[in-house]
Here is the input.
Amino acid sequence: MFSGIVEEPATVVASTSKDGNIELTVKSSFANELKIDQSVAHNGVCLTVTSVNPDEKTYTVTAVEETLRRSNLGLLEPGSKVNLERSMMMNGRLDGHIVQGHVDCTARCTARKELDGSVEFTFEYEPDAEMERQGYFTVEKGSVTVNGVSLTVCNSGRGTFGVAIIPYTLEHTNFCDIKIGTIVNLEFDIIGKYVARLASLN
Here is the structure.
């Protein structure tokens, strides 16, 4: 379980294809604190640590075919920045919102607008009627996770929404690299999914 509060944008140092999966090696300031089998969110995708190299401050995770199909992890290459978050401690504050680390789909950035004190991004994704019935959509002022970052939705529409990014978030996540055409990961709000499921039973 995660909160969508990114700890750091780390650097991918290697991406290796293996049996249809991809092994990602990431250099992180907290790599030495990780243990094998620990969960870390990468651009919002929960992955399991499979090895740690303390001397180089790197660790390795594996993304399987299903994960690659639903996310942008297959687009990462050496030098790419990836947002990292370790699993939430249950004795801490929930500063973002409840995030599972299960990416639902990808979206494309279609606009980036500089505002006074923030940057507004617009994203578009392929709407699907069946997925919408299951709660896979955004609502105005609701929560959404973009590349692992917990954000508040604005300008919500069918297959599109916007978010406003403050300077701190822009500097401390890979939002600084997002431009028109960039593919990002989306996880829709789990509460909305449960509400949609309950409504379908009536």
Summary: Residues 190-200 form the longest helix (11 residues).
